[in-house]
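sorry to bug you again but im stuck and you know this stuff better than me. theres a chain ive been looking at and ive put its sequence and its fold in token form underneath. id like you to explain what the token line says about the fold, in plain words if possible. anything you notice is useful, everything is just below.
___
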Amino acid sequence: MRKLQELRGRPRDLSLGIAIGVFVGITPTIPLHTVLAVALAVALRGSKLAAALGVWVANPLTIPIFYYGSYRLGSFVLGMPELTLPTTYSVFSLMKLGGNVTVAMLHGGVLLGILPAVLAYFLTYKFTSSPRFQREPSTTAEDTVDPGE
């Protein structure tokens, strides 16, 4: 919340940036999260910094949950059978297994990311539109100088 407060911009832009970041953070695109989020923020005219901040919804604690959920939802939606490991390990059997898992995870990740992104948009919009967010940060004693000194 503090990092979001430090960002400047219209509530719509900040909210869209956070929503984009959350959406991308849930998808199984981990090496490209920030790049994808910033590119989408540019394309959709959201805050690039807020998008980069939003991808941090994906962290070492949440990524296993997101990836497992993405695979399960994607394989369900695509009507894929349960994953079974091949009995003979060859390059071709592993490549086929990887392709099926990747397709299922991408489909599931996109579907899984929609609701949290929408919620993130509205919560961020409410937060950034509040008078408390709009006012300037208060100064501390170190920031003020007594005119008599």
